[in-house]
Amino acid sequence: MTATIVLNADDYGLSPGVSQGILALIRQGRLSGTSCMTATPFWPQHAPWLAEVADRADIGLHLTLTDQEPAGPCPALAPTGRFGSVGDLMIRSLTGRLMDTASQADLKAEIGRQLDLFEAHAGRPPSHVDGHQHVHLLPGVRGLVLDAVARRYPRGSVYVRDCAEPMAAVLARGVDSVKALIIASLARGLAAAAARRGIPTNRGFRGVYDFGPDRDFPALMARFLAPARDRALIMVHPALPDEVLAGLDPVVASRQVEQAYLSGDAFAHLLEEMGVRLGRLQG
Q: In its UniProt record, which GO terms are filed under biological process (predicted)?
């Protein structure tokens, strides 16, 4: 029996090499989705490129609240004109300091602005919403994301990424288990909260690893694909060589490793051997 899994490339719009690499893989049928950073200076130019693949891939918003400039003023969360690190945001969230009036106003406005930018330049609503560094899971952010999706889009038309994965599956996979379990714990309850608002979610989340360029990515992908489960989502971060990227993000070399493997014959053979097809979550 063939299982349909969503293979989603994050960070479209981060740099030319990231966007071009993702587009090449979608054209090749090696990805079934991508999530887009809409507050970057590259998004207005790169968004129209997606029109040719819009009928064969989920194309959504990669909400970005860390390490970059916001799409508009965020005096409480980005007083210097730039968001802080994911660690800073997590501390604020887990200590309840995102629930104050000023922070909530900043978050609500920024979520709306990034969705507006997606629609303005892609010419369509997103198929899904998720978060760069999983920020959409955080207390103080999660409810605002779900409310925005429920308010703006027809019921059931836009899904939200659920990063939950059973502990037994994470431990059996044996890939950066501590990090994967932390992310899964942050996602606890998201699917139920989304369902109450009529928002679909994926069922299972894989792809967490330390992005070390010396990791055996083909072996990791085999682990991420097992067990093959319908509607599971695997995140990847491919890119073509790109001098711009090195100045924007610490993850560089591993992206090229992923790009090379996902575009090659070995990956196609692995999908066939494991009885997996790549498909859109709702397509």
A: carbohydrate metabolic process
Select from 174, 73, 184, 96 the least CA-distant residue to 137.
184
Beta strands in the chain (DSSP E): 3-12, 33-36, 58-63, 128-131, 159-160, 205-206, 233-236, 276-278
Q: Which of 108, 147, 158, 131 is nearest to 35 (CA)?
A: 131
In 3D space, the residue among 165, 110, 160, 111 whose CA is nearest the CA of residue 137 turns out to be: 160
How far apart (Å, rounded) are the C-alpha atoms in residues 278 and 233? Answer: 10
Among 61, 154, 128, smallest CA distance to 280 is for: 128
**Tens digits of residue pLDDT in 137-196:** 999 999 999 999 999 999 999 999 999 999 999 999 999 999 999 999 999 999 999 999
DSSP percent split of the chain into helix, strand, coil, nearest 5: 45, 15, 40
Domains of the chain: 3-278 (3.20.20.370)
Are 140 and 93 within 8 A, CB to CB? yes
What are the backbone dihedrals phi and psi of residue 244, each rounded to the nearest 5 degrees, phi first?
A: -65, -40
Which pLDDT score, from 0 to 100, does residue 1 have?
65
CA dihedral 274, 31, 195, 112 (to 10 degrees): 160
pLDDT tier at 33, thresholds 50, 70, 90: very high
Task: Quote the CA–CA distance of 238 and 257 in Å, as a whole number.
Answer: 8
Please write down the HEC assignment for all residues of 111-158: HHHHHHHHHHHHCCCCCEEEEHHHHHHCCCCHHHHHHHHHHHCCCCCC
